[in-house]
Each structure stands twice: as structure tokens, then as C-alpha cells.
Target: Translocon-associated protein subunit beta
Amino acid sequence: FFFSFTHLPMMRLLSVLLLVFCFSAVFAESGARLVISRAILNEELIIGKDTVVNVEIYNVGDEPAYDIEYTEMGAFEQFEPVVGVSTGASWPKLSPGSKISHNFVVRPVATGSFVVGNAEVSYHGSSSDSQVVRIVDRIEYPVVQFSEYQRQTSPHVREWAIFGGLLLIPTAYPLFVWILYQIAYQHGVHKKSKLGVAMAQGTKKKNK
Model:
């Protein structure tokens, strides 16, 4: 098969057909199929402050899922758990087209980079054996002290005042010189010189 640019439309069509075939193969299987989504809701991770983690589990299959169990794989060991709140959870059933939302709260205890890590959901359908779905997350989140967070988010009024002053000096100096020139000179002649005095007297006579 000889490839040339004239075959590009055919290649694109074949790519689309291949994607459709792959998705059809995935969703053609009957039974319960769970998809997991996990997100940290805080914009910043701060030592000693509550960090809220949101987990959502979707059943995209055509059968109910049973005995659903969500488990964190040690990713939040460096965090302090909040009393009465568990990172894991379980549910007896999840219907097709439905979702489960689970939030848990932890507190960072050390500065540095935090990798969220893995989590998994185990379940089984009405006509299938036990299955496991995993999240693999290698994103690094920085954990900072509250003082560092304040420094990063403060309005920096003092710094802006200094910056404004530095910008004002080059602008104000030419204006100051121009004002002094207007006071001391008239039509380019110093007002205290003989010519300047004569010009001033002549102007007064004209005004009379």
C-alpha cells in the first residue's frame, strides 16, 4: 500500500471507524460497569486546615452493581484524619445510570509535595464475579504553611506603594522642572534679566 497525502481522508475515516469499534466493544458487554472520579476541592493544601476530597462513582452499565466498596490505597497516610470521617466507604447497590458521591476530610501535617496516589472500587454485578476498578494518580500537590499561603495571597500593599513611588519619580521630575521653567522664564527669556524686565514693563503698558 503506497501512502500519499491523497489517502489522508481515507486514513481519517479508518481512525474514526476504529474508535467507534473500540467503544462498541467496551460497552457491548452487558452487566454493571463502574467509573470513578476523585478530586481535591481545595485550591491550596495548608498544614492544619481541612482538605476536602470528593469521590464520585458512576454506573455506566446496564445492570445494578452490588456490594460497592471504595478504598484509598494509603495515599493520605501523611494526612491527619478528621474524627468521625472515614476515607473509605461502602454501599449495597448502585443502579444503572446512577452515581454515588462520597466526601471525606483530612488535614495535612507536613510541608512538601503530596502525591494523591491510588484508590480502588470493588463490586460485582448480578451476573458477574467480583470486579475492581482503580484510580492511578501521580499528580503532585504542594503542601504549605499558613504563613506562606498568606504571603502568596496578601495584597502586597507595601510593595505596590514602593513600586508606585519608583514609577512616580521619573514622571514627577520633568513636571517639576517644567513648572520651575514657567515660573522663571517668559517666552524663553529669564524674567529677572534686563530683557525680561523690559518685556514685562512693555506688557504692562499694553494692558493699560
Observations:
- Residues 157-207 form one domain.
- Confidence is low (pLDDT under 50) at residues 1-8.
- The two ends are 104 Å apart (CA to CA).
